[in-house]
Automatic annotation (TrEMBL):
Gene3D superfamilies: Homeodomain-like. It holds the Pfam family DDE_Tnp_ISL3. Residues 1-46 are annotated as: Disordered. It comes from Streptomyces telluris. Residues 49-112 form the HTH IS21-type domain. This is Transposase. It comes from the Bacteria.
């Protein structure tokens, strides 16, 4: 009976496989994460360092030509940095450049955050949205995202269907805290799995404790369940309710009979179909 219940649970969990995956936390636009967190971008760092060097040399009395020669900068660039009171004023002067990729950057940033880093795949996706540029531009933008945001955190894989079924059917006292928490998370995301878990554990408790007198109440709950596999399992039990109740109540079982049947089948197969009934009978008797 527990085997049949397990098979039904496998179908239930498989049907709701999408619920096994934990939802990803909202990830902001990767391209703006450095700005949102207040972290200095490479461009801003370069401007700040260059402004500091120019101002330091200018305060020491060096001419524009001398500073230009020492730092390897154009004279116009040195003059602009020397006149700027702060590095922030130079940063504000940076022109905003637009390209064919600009309208698609939010989409690319979201897809990159979801785990897609194939420039060709993303280029094909935005081409369907009107992009006419090349794959190299997409690759350069992806490289920028990677530099500004570092490696993406890889989400843990969802639990396997077999693991979830094992957590449901297994004895709760034999499971570790992580398994209990994982099952709780899965049940919180899917009402049908949660209901199947509650009813399956109830039946397993009846079976293990030989509480056959509680089977009627369990069948009533199962009949009202939204999980069709549980209802199917309960209907199968009703077809031979007296025998099922006895099996869940009495300590007797057919294990010895089933063991002898398996042994006889093994002896029969060892003859590879070349022995008759008389020889099989002698082998069974001599085996005792």
């Amino acid at each position: 009976m527990l085997h049949n219940l397990t098979k039904g649970l496998e179908k239930t969990v498989t049907r709701h496989r999408s619920c096994l995956k934990s939802p990803q936390s909202d990830v902001g636009q990767p391209a703006d994460s450095a700005k949102a967190s207040g972290e200095e971008t490479p461009y801003e760092r370069k401007i700040r360092e260059r402004h500091r060097d120019v101002q330091e040399l200018f305060q020491r009395g060096l001419t524009i030509d001398a500073i230009s020669a020492r730092l390897g900068l154009d004279r116009k660039t040195v003059r602009r940095y020397a006149r700027a009171a702060t590095a922030e004023s130079l940063m504000r002067e940076r022109p905003s450049r637009s390209s064919a990729l600009t309208p698609h950057k939010p989409y690319l940033a979201r897809r990159w955050a979801e785990g897609c880093n194939s420039a060709q795949t993303l280029r094909d996706e935005i081409a369907a949205r009107g992009y006419q540029g090349c794959r190299k531009s997409v690759r350069r933008f992806l490289n920028t995202l990677a530099r500004h945001n570092g490696p993406r955190a890889v989400p843990p894989p969802p639990p396997a269907v077999a693991d979830v079924v094992r957590w449901i059917i297994g004895r709760p006292e034999n499971q570790n805290d992580q398994a209990c928490q994982d099952l709780k998370d899965v049940c919180s995301r899917c009402t049908e799995i949660a209901e199947a878990c509650h009813l399956a554990r109830g039946f397993a408790t009846i079976l293990r404790r030989r509480d056959g007198h509680r089977l009627g109440d369990w069948l009533t709950q199962a009949n009202e369940s939204q999980v069709k596999e549980i209802r199917t399992f309960a209907n199968g039990l009703r077809k031979d309710l007296a025998a099922v109740t006895a099996g869940l109540t009495l300590p007797l079982n057919s294990g010895a009979v089933e063991g002898n049947v398996t042994r006889i089948k093994l002896l029969k197969r060892q003859d590879y179909g070349r022995a008759g009934f008389d020889l099989l009978r002698r082998r069974i008797l001599l085996a005792h």
